[in-house]
Amino acid sequence: MSTSSVSKGCFVFKPSAKKKKTLSLEDHFIHGCEGADESKTRFKLCQDLWDQIKTDTELLQDELNTKILDSLLDFTRKCSSTRQHSDWASHMRASEIPTAALVLGVNVPDHDMTFQSLSELLRQSVTPHVASVQAKECGALKHLIKRVLERLMGTDVTVDDDEEEETEQTSAPLHKSVHCSLSTLCDWYTRNTKKSYSLTPGKKRSSPVKDNLQQPPIVIIFKDLEAFNARVLQDFILICSRYIERLPLMFIFGIATSPSTIQHMLPHSVSSLLCIELFQSLSCTQHLATVIDKLILTTHFPFKLNGKVMQVLISIFLYHDFSVRNFIKGVQLALLEHFHSQPLSVLCCRKKEALLNVMQLGHRDLERIRQLPSFKRYVEKQEPQEQEHLLTDDTHLKEVCRRLIKDLRKYHKHYYPTLRCLHTLTSSLPRYPLGKQIRELHLICLEKNVWENEEYQSAMKLLKMLAKDELISLLKKCAEILQHSKNMKSALLQLEAMLAKFKQLDTVVAEPPPPAEESITSPVKNLQKKTDLFQLQKALLEMNESRRSKKLSPFEVLRNETLQFVDSLVQSHLSPPESQTLYEVCYYSSSATVRRHLNAAPRTSIQAALNSPFYYLQNDRLKSEDGSVSNAAPDICIVYKLHLECGRLINLFDWLEAFATVVSAAEGNDPDSDSFGKVDDVKHARFIRAVSELEFLGFIKSTKQKTDHVARITWGGC
């Protein structure tokens, strides 16, 4: 920009107010896909399923937390009413600070949603005065008091002179600053309470607090108790105990590990000031089981995960964070990757919409269907004339695809009720041969034919040993499961007929048992007479044969018949999804992609970027075939590659000369000239910056052995 001025000076040009346009998720999605119209359709389908998963997860979270949240609300109401009584016991209890110890488990990422729901419910039905604090923002006592006052009073709070200077440098506050002390909170609470309850009789109250609560409590939520400084927490409780007669304070401790944490952090002199009541939330494994049952093992969601992807997500849950929230994020990531990488995912939607989308497929999409492994297997099973029509006639292929999509939907409607029935029968068996959780049985069924599994065979043998009452109870549960499935009516009728036969067994007169001398007693008598080893072996064989030839009772016959029916049901409906044609349009199978995104490996990523900058920058000048780094690469990549050629100690001067030589070649200088490879101020500065960045990333460090050397601290590559 040019300027005209008589005198010399410094001119400041403000940047344009126009902000750089940022790409939305839809733009990124469409940018990496072929065909704009098809990509928009796929993105819309993906977004609808994404929103549905999010909505259903939040509703499920609220349902699971309803019991514990209702208990906490009752606790706060009870403690508030206790302060209004004048009897001696209530007075003694009112001198303590009511405290709810809420044990949420180690799934810390899920706690925010629980505390958010709790805060909203408290504000709606108990008190408008709720403040939540975290350990990372309360390193000192003054910071803790400041955060509590700011969130209760909705104003800026002054701590000391240093923070006053910081406040002046920031933007102008909306409210006037107040002094940081609980006496300020007492004055504010008294004014606010009088203002809220000095309404005229004919005017409705705007406060959500009930009319019988003359003094709504002040609830302070400590989200992560274990992370708080023990000394800060002790001092805060001691200060609050001195104001308990003027402020109706209540604490809620969010505990991730064990209730004994309170005893470890607070001495008896401090914990005796608290009236603690314990609350236990649902375990994270039970939460995950419910999420899988309601969101994964259902026909409401057309998108599915194959066995390997499910195993990756469950392994991350069990061995990393126990977070159901992160598990849902993994499902959403797989959903996004599936719709982005699979052009035929346009058929992964509800039945009517999928059948409509089939008829709108172009020739290129139909060719993609013909290349699917499952469709190739289907074509090989057809007659030669039908094979020709499937491979050449697009119209005929569309009609066949409509039928195959219907069959795939029908497969899922049969699969999930049968899976639940099999889990109901086997989950009560000793040692859980097919797993205690339904997700374990689901993974087995996704991998191979479950009826060919040794665990399945042993489970069926154990079922043949069940007593009548226990077997009838399990079969009734299976009948309840089948009643909720419209596509399993024939199986339900057969099962109900067998239950009726079991009921009739009680009315049938039992046949007299065979004479004891003819059955098992005779070998036993022979066994008592003879002590010879040969005769003993012969007698034992006779006993075994007599037991085998023993006539089965009516119950045993009916039990075997019932289990044969269950086995036929399993073999008909629990085949792996890979056996279904066009399963690729609904099932996501790239477990490596999910693992790479969710299990981040920073060192591997950094080394890959420094070794192959083209992978991230996508610049053709950075391509290299032999694995070497181009001389046009960023300085840090050149320095990193040179440092790999050195030993434990690296001479900085030799390193600098090698760097200058590579950079000179990148600048196109004549190798025969005297200036080639010479170190100037610019190259020296670039080298120092690159080495500093390498030290910051943790590849080198300074050493006292030699002043002009640095030590290499990483070995091996990715």
Automatic annotation (TrEMBL):
Q: Where is the Origin recognition complex subunit 3 N-terminal domain?
A: 1-347
Where is this protein localized, as stated in its record?
Answer: Nucleus
* GO terms (BP aspect): DNA replication
One GO MF annotation is:
DNA binding
Q: Chief localization class?
A: nucleus
What PANTHER family is this protein classified in?
A: ORIGIN RECOGNITION COMPLEX SUBUNIT 3 (PTHR12748:SF0)
The name under which this protein is listed is: Origin recognition complex subunit 3
